[in-house]
Amino acid sequence: MLSSLGSAGGKSTKPSFVSYVTPEEIKSEKEHSRKEKHPDLLPGEVVFCSASTVLKYTQDDLSQRGVFGALLCTNFRVSFVSDEAPAEEMGQLFKNKLYGENDIPLSCVDNIYGGYEDKKKLLTGGLMKNKYPSKIIIHCKDLRVFQFSLTFSKEEDAKKIFQGIIHHCLEPKSLRCLFAFSYCENTSYPEMQRKKQTVMFDSVEDWTQDMKRTKGNCRLVSENRSFELSPKLPQFFIVPANVSDEDLTKYQGKGLPMWCWSHHSGCALFKTASLPLLPEDNVPQTHMEKMLTAVAHNHLYSVKTEDLSETLPTVQDIQLSYNKFKQFFLIDNTTEFWMSDMKWFSSLDNCGWLDIIRQCLQKAVEVVECLEKENTNVLIMEEGGSDLCCVVSSLVQLMLDPYYRTLLGFQSLVQKEWVVGGHAFLDRSNHLHLKDKVESQSPVFLLFLECVWQLQQQHGPAFQFSETYLTVLSDSVHVPVFTTFLFNNDSHRDSILKAESPHTQRGPLNCPTVWDWSVQFDCKAQDLFTNPLYAEKPKQDKSVRKSHRPKHLRQLSLPSSAFKTPPKKGFFKDEADSLKKILRVKRISRWMLSPSDSPQTSSSAREFYEAWQAKPLDYHGLLLPCLDGPSIRVWMQRYLRWIHDVQILGGGPVAVLSKVSEILGEVQELQRELDRHGCTLASNHKGARPRAKTAAEIASRSSVRLSSSFPFVTSRNWSFKPAIPTSLLQSLMVTGIAGNLADRADDGDDLQSMV
Amino acid sequence: MDKQFFGGVAGGDSTAQPGVANRNNKPRTLATSGSKQDSLETLDSPTGSHVEWCKQLIAATISSQISSVPPDTASGDCKAPRDGSKQVQMDEVPLVPGETIKAVAKDVMYICPFTGLVTGTLTSTNYKLYFISLERDTPFIMDVNLGAISRLETISVQSHGENTRGMEIVCKDMRSPRFAYKEDASQPEIVEVLAKHTFPLSNDLPLFAFLYKEDFPVDGWKVYDPIAEYKRQGLPNESWTISKMNSSYEVCDTYPALVVIPSSIKDDDLKRVVSFRARHRIPVLSWIHPESQATIVRSSQPLVGPSDRRCKEDERYLQTIMDANAQSHKLTIFDARQSSVADNNKAKDGGYESESFYPNVELNFLEIPNIHVMRESLRKLKEVVYPTIDEAHWHSAVDQTHWLEYIRLLLAGAVRIADRLESGKTSVMVHCSDGWDRTAQLTSLAMLMLDSHYRTLRGFQVLLEKEWISFGHKFAARVGHGDDNHANSERSPLFIQFIDCVWQINRQFPAAFEFNELFLITILDHLYSCLFGTFLYNSEQERVAKEVQTKTVSLWSYINSQPEDFTNPFYVDYEHHVLYPLASIRHLELWTGYYVRWNPRMRPQMPVHQNLKELLFLRAELQRKVEELEREASSSRGSLSSSSEHTSSPSHSGGTPLHTIV
Predict the structure, then answer these.
(1) N- to C-terminal Cα distance for chain B?
(2) Predominant location of this chain (chain B) (predicted)?
């Protein structure tokens, strides 16, 4: 069977989805595994190989104890099926329907290490030796760590499962091999109901609607319906009204300003893939000038540009930093963990991840300032136009537009800016392990979610969705079932789905999107996606809203006195006068961009923040993040949830959640009571919240017994034994620091004198 | 480093000409005449370089338009200048009962590190320093309790033929506001008045707490009754007795009048134990486990000395403590010190219990550094958080202060103690050198983890009154109330460190405490303020001698008169659940709400939990409505009173929204 596995992947492979195992083999495998324990296979899931009597170490234990069971590798996951009776389903409220706690979707595997005696070696694909390690350590992209021992299995089985896992997890494969295709062929999902759902931005109506909502006044382009203009552009998009038909066809869409969002003042945010400006070639420059003029014409003939490639870290920087950062959380050794605890804060600074988050938020605040305070159009650009542009444009919209802070609004935003906006999800996550794509792998979308989490931490009640929602969304990127994260852009998605459809005449393959949360979670679990403390918008009729607007503007203008606005010399350049000249200035300024410039920008942004902060907070108005040192935090839920040693038993945010849910439940109960009496208290927005009760149910079950990892880890092996760092380490540390002060007697006087 | 800076100023005379402003040595001045002994003063200046300060001052002088005409209110005297005709109402200084205005200076510039220069009026009362400026749209107010001031420093700069005075107010609460004003020979120096009232004890004045005359509806001095507290714990019982041996503080002058000791101990033996323990702080009970009868016992170090002295009575005494707990035939001693330091102490006639002399005793060192290390750590922390924050290196900077590492050590130590009692069912004895610093930190933290009563608003007050105040944590020495000797090495922020630990536990268990962050901050503010008598003096004996309870007001009178401000809306009674906070740096965080609160950028715009409070309000409102309807219904139906009884009961359970228990 293994011989047939050899030729997988690669670009040259014939584009057909054929399992590398013959039907006979599948059958025999199935029969074989049926004799043993196997997980409930999903539709279209096929077991490739398996081994029994594999020992899974229980991560939370220093002693080499573990659970025996079977290890399987399917076309979807690596799965461990314990020999022991399945755990009590008490904590299984938040069960993922696609994979369980002992399953690792193949594309969720980050790194595999082989444990050879005492050495731990990083394994890469292609190294098919007959020797297999006694221990496999799997680091997952959702930060779980699994350790399996193969020493107790039959040698033949052990070899097979080892090579199978290496092959399917690490070696290049073709897109068609991803589980989504065989899954979708074998399941039928009803088309998502259009009403009350996420806006997909795959139709003229969706875009028109969004432009109408923001009162934008730009031009909808539908000429790319079948990707005639450029495969890099979405099917539908919006450009400034002054862009001509001729301009659309130039440079494959590069340099074309794509509308993102319109501010109520009329100015708008655009993004574009920048054109290479070669000094000897004037043509792209004139095109660029023309495009800038078009943007400027949108509102008051003003435009500011911002080249994100120059001012933000590159995708490679992001990847490098995240690689360092995630290591702090991939713990396979408790001693190591407590050792790293000492250097925690310094390590945090050194890896730079939090700083990258800060920079992105900072940039977004600068753009917000231009739109909100100066009412100028903004054009952000970068080389591909679909990485940091997506981060910044979506953050700007989150800060400015309360609609995007609702659950559906947020999903629509991701759909608009990322999925349709052409973020190369496939390349950035490198699901296919292609060697030539290693360089392009980068957690840009995760970076965005991190930034959203920071905003959410600082202004909780402004968001309808919860922290858990963001964590689950970040996990879902690595579940190869959803069309959302499998492709590089619209045309890529379109072509593959059409080509893969088994019945071409019936239209493209119908795969679920990640927004169809029922694929992963049942309704009760989905309740945890909403924030019980969300401050819902008080209902207003339209007339009120209109009169509200100018007030809104005044509210946000800066006080004229006291604050001296320094001359603006920042990254943003005014491009209003002569665009040609400005363009030259811009290019020269690349050399002039001395470090002394940056504090000026930030000091202006600082003032903008301070002026905003001085006003009373409106959860449905502009939202700015505080970016000072202590305000940017580590996303504890996402990163610490699997580490047993740092679970706060009986504590963590869930303690608050349960209390809130309980009160909500009581409020509802009381309201029902009132209704029964036929009297309705001036029904506040807080009133009817159907979800609250179930949430209360979840939380109140055992509020004291839940841990800070809720809802991700079930406290099955609940013990009240505290985690205590070893005293050896403590003394090691303290003597290093205390110096001679430590030797001094506590009080001025000597003990001698006292006795 | 600092010395270099200092030299820089001396050499920079051409730009800055700091005159000698040292008139009578009272306000400590940063004289820049180059005298060597003064350079020590700059060494521990927490706000960085002197040069920078001079520059700020000059900049302030140049940019300002201080009128050279002297302000016409020459009211430097004790009479309050309340000529309302001239002053806007906003200008009035709010005073607490007993507070009087001592000096007013006009046209003073506050060099605000966050918003720039502000010009306004600076008033010194006998309780606070109050600065108000009306030049901005909204009045700018800043006040500092005099008690929070660690030292005053002045500097003089000559510019345009006039002397400008700079005044830096170095505070214990993590800020150092700076002011600048024109010198005016015709007026008494505000600095002098300020210094006099800031350090009353150095100027033969009473602490302000003795002048404060507020009447609160609740008497906070009644919060702690040792007999009642011991009774709550189930004491006395057959093994433990509440002893009055120290009722006149003759046995131990730093212990409370009532202590709990083993009931079987004989007086003669006790005397020997007393003389064998440092400062006569014998092992006494702090807390007893309601089920296992395992106890937390606190003491000072035994006076073992370099020759390994033994005391049979002390050995037997510990055996008795061990025997009082039938569940375990062991006793664990946690010595909070670093083992190396304990050895040093041994050479100086102190020491620790030898496991070979004390059978079944297990000795552990918790390796916590001493008060000097902690003082230094907080000093470094102040540099990191005030006035500005370095964004990019924030975490490394915090790391280098080691503050959180020490917090972690304390929490880890307390968790070990609590675990020993709870899972090990073993009695624990805690001491350091004298048993009033680290010992108090550890026992009170462990008690907080073990006993949910201490996590209530009242219970926490009892905990402080008991473990800290009555057991002689030297608040006066550690804080330096009203004393001008800021360099005194007895000062150390141990109580702050403890409150920080409480905050960390609170953060990890947001629903387990009845009190909120404001409560903790208020405690720390009044640790310094000298407004209340609660934290004054070093021991119960001193407090009795000074009649603190009759002559001053308790902080708890204030707190308990408005408990709703200090209650945590998320509170759920965890009852008998032991809290084990995670002593991992990953779960510790710098308490920005306290240490960085002067930075306006770190202030939340919306009161925390505003949303939840609205919700609670809505619930109360609904409850009221329902009850009303029920009443109407029952009255109309007349005799059917039983139904109303029935339906009103659920609302009763949640009648006071802030105290619901699940």
Answers:
(1) 57
(2) cytoplasm
First to last CA, chain A: 85
Examine the pLDDT at B14 and tell me if it is beyond 60. no
On whether the pTM is more than 0.90, the answer is: no
Tokens 């055996």, located at residue: B319
Cα Rg of chain A (Å, integer):
28
All residues of chain A having their beta carbon less than 8 Å from the beta carbon of residue B610 are: 461
Q: Report helix angle B641-653 to B610-637, nearest 10.
A: 170
Q: Are A367 and A573 in contact (CB under 8 A)?
A: no
Contact B532, B558 (CB under 8 A): yes
- Write the pLDDT tens digit of every residue in B371-421: 999 999 999 999 999 888 877 788 999 999 999 999 999 999 999 999 999
The beta strand positions in B580-629, using DSSP E, are none
**Eight-state DSSP code of residue A372:** I
Which of B509, B569, B592 comes nearest A630 by C-beta?
B592
CA-based nearest residue to A627, from A433, A378, A408, A399: A399
pLDDT above 70: percentage of residues in chain A: 72
Q: Alpha carbon of B583 to those of B129, B212, B367: distances in Å? A: 39, 41, 15
Q: What chain A residue is nearest to B134 in terms of C-alpha separation?
A: A562
Alpha helices in B12-126 (DSSP H): 36-43, 50-63
User: Picking from A543-552, B234-243, B491-500, which range would have the lowest pLDDT averaged per residue?
Assistant: A543-552
Give the pLDDT mean for A520-530.
89
Q: Which residues of B touch A338 (CB under 8 A)?
A: 584
Sign of CA dihedral B413, B415, B418, B424: negative
- Specify the pLDDT at position B91: 63
Nearest CB partner across the interface for B415, out of A640, A724, A755: A724
What span, in angstroms and rounded, lies between the C-alpha atoms of B25 and B27?
6
- Separation in Å, CA of A213 to nearest CA in chain B: 28
CA B381 – CA A558 distance, rounded (Å): 33
Enter the tokens of residue B336: 């909070």
- Residues of chain B with Cβ-Cβ distance to A60 below 8 Å are none
A396-454 residue pLDDT tens: 999 999 999 999 999 999 999 999 999 999 999 988 888 888 889 999 999 999 999 99
Q: Which strand ranges, in their side-by-side order, compose the sheet holding A77-82?
A: A103-105, A77-82, A66-74, A47-57, A145-149, A135-140, A109-116, A119-123
Peptide linkage before B283 cis (omega within 30 of 0): no
ipTM over 0.95: no
How many beta-carbon pairs below 8 A join chains A and B?
A: 279
Structure-token pair, residue A129: 């030796």
Buried-state track A473-507, b at ≥16 Cβ within 10 A, e below 16 = bbbbbbbbbbbbbbbbbbbbbbebbeebbeeeeee
- Identify the DSSP state of B304: -
Q: What was the pLDDT predicted at B654?
A: 33
Contact A664 B647 (CB under 8 A): no
Give me the numbers of helices (H) and strands (E) for chain B, helices first please: 22, 14
Q: Is A649 on the interface with B (CB under 8 A)?
A: yes
Nearest to A345 among B373, B398, B614 (CB): B398
Of A159-173, B80-94, B181-195, the range with the lowest mean pLDDT is B80-94
Using CA atoms, how far apart are residues B397 and B215, in angstroms rounded to an integer? 45
Name the one residue in this structure whose structure tokens are 């996303």: A635
Task: Let me know if B432 is a catalytic residue.
Answer: yes
Q: Rounded to the nearest 10 degrees, how much is the dihedral formed by the CA atoms of A686, A688, A694, A697?
A: 60
CA distance A229 to A512: 28
Running DSSP on this structure, what letter comes out for residue A420? T
Q: Compute how many other C-beta atoms are within 10 angstroms of the C-beta atom of residue A755.
A: 13
Torsions phi, psi for A298 (to 5 deg): -60, -40
User: Which two tokens mark A436?
Assistant: 């030539």
Please name which of A543, A595, A604 lies closest in space to residue A572, comparing C-alpha atoms.
Answer: A604
